[in-house]
Amino acid sequence: MRAFVLAGGMGTRLRDRFGDLPKPLVPVGGKPFLTRQLEWLAAHDLREVVLCVGHGADQVRQAVGDGAAAGVQIFYSREVAPLGTGGALKLAESFVEGPSLVINGDTLPELEPASLERVRQARSATGAVALFALDDVSASGRVECDEEGKITAFAEKDSERRGRGWVNGGCYSFDVSLWSWLPEGPSSLERDVLPRLAAAGALVGQKIDGAFFDIGTPAGWERAERRFAA
Predict the structure, then answer these.
(1) DSSP string of 187-201?
(2) Fewer CB within a 10 Å sphere, N or C end of the chain?
(3) CA angle, 130 then 206 then 226, to 5°
(4) 94: left (phi over 0), alpha (psi -120 to 50) or beta
(5) Phi, psi (degrees; rounded to nearest 5) at 90
(6) pLDDT per residue over 77-124, tens digit each?
(7) What is the pTM of this model?
(8) Regarding the domain delimited by 2-228, which CATH topology (the fold level of the hierarchy) does it fall under?
(9) Would you kindly state where each structural domain of the chain is located, as residue ranges?
């Protein structure tokens, strides 16, 4: 499998703390978050990585280069104007060679990527989504599955619906057919593509008994910093 890292984020919500530093380069536990992602991929034998870059692309390239220091080989797919997560993947279509792991540039999950792909293959699904439990999903939105693990809906944030639930951890395994679902131009994988796949019965979830770290918000960054600075 090749891994695709959606590393074009601007890090707007982290700007008060880190200024214009591209979100993938935000330090967590003393090293850029992207470096931690690359090392995690290498540790799971995912050695070919496509970085979908945008904002701060030159800084990202300068920081991680060809990936050798992290034990991977990096291919760059660079957007000229913001395309969103779906558009960034569509732009990188020429790098697709088979089933692919896709991970958000601000996410680091505790999971075995190969197990996510095994779940996808076993169900002959277009995609498998890593799901993580939260004690309160009211501020996060939630993912609903049937008894067989097929994803039936992506529910919006609902301040009145509190309690434990499953959320999208920003890590996916996709068959090559995913790229036929991606429209040309800007799009959101989360809002425009995944709900359509779920409605078509082409998406399954894997409930992960572990943690995931999302540095997209100050609170999320602080949680990751406490974990990796220890």
Answers:
(1) --IIIIIHHHHHHTT
(2) C
(3) 40
(4) alpha
(5) -60, -40
(6) 999 999 999 999 999 999 999 999 999 999 999 999 999 999 999 999
(7) 0.95
(8) Spore Coat Polysaccharide Biosynthesis Protein SpsA; Chain A (3.90.550)
(9) 2-228
